[in-house]
Amino acid sequence: MRKLVYYIAVTLDGRIAGPAGQFDFFPQGDAQQTAAYMGFMNSLYPETVPTAFRAMAGVEDAPNRRFDTVLMGRATHQLDPAMPSPYAHLRQYVVSSTLKPDAAPDVTVVPGDPIGLVRDLKREETGLDIWLCGGGTLAGALMPEVDEIVLKSYPVVAGAGIPMVDGEFDPTVFSVAERTAFPNGVTATRLVRN
């Protein structure tokens, strides 16, 4: 069965973006550090690079290695209005009760029941997993279905912003499967549900 994987960048205080959705404050390090970090992550997860930036990242022709489907909330989908179809190289689903069904080309808007959607997607036999891209409210709703978390932890405190998971109190235990630290201070950790 396919897995739902929450692949996300987070601050030390558990924020995935600032209060207005900003994410440009995540420290990258110098050019050499950034290249090493991005090269490593993009080699593992090339499909997580937005379509518009794939050529610049050197993954334009890279096959999807881990995911063939991306799932996101409305705010994540609308982070950049100039990119109505941010991951055109993937099947894109946006969970939103306010977006119109034809909000963007190549994007399927799902007005409700994200759990049902994920369970249906998990039953498909595509050979690749489902990427939960964000945001925190959707992650909270889908936490019962999250099989893995790939957490890119940045050495910065936001103080306020969008939490990584915004939901009911429901402690869910994950185990560290692997962890890589980078010279720019970022730690990438893959965790699996116990």
From TrEMBL:
InterPro entries, alphabetized: DHFR-like_dom_sf (IPR024072), RibDG_C (IPR002734), Riboflavin_Biosynth_HTPR (IPR050765)
Domain Bacterial bifunctional deaminase-reductase C-terminal: 3-185
Pfam families the record matches: RibD_C
Taxonomic superkingdom: Bacteria
PANTHER family referenced in this protein's UniProt entry, alphabetically: 2,5-DIAMINO-6-RIBOSYLAMINO-4(3H)-PYRIMIDINONE 5'-PHOSPHATE REDUCTASE, DIHYDROFOLATE REDUCTASE FAMILY PROTEIN (AFU_ORTHOLOGUE AFUA_8G06820)
Record protein name field: Dihydrofolate reductase family protein
Lineage: Bacteria, Bacillati, Actinomycetota, Actinomycetes, Pseudonocardiales
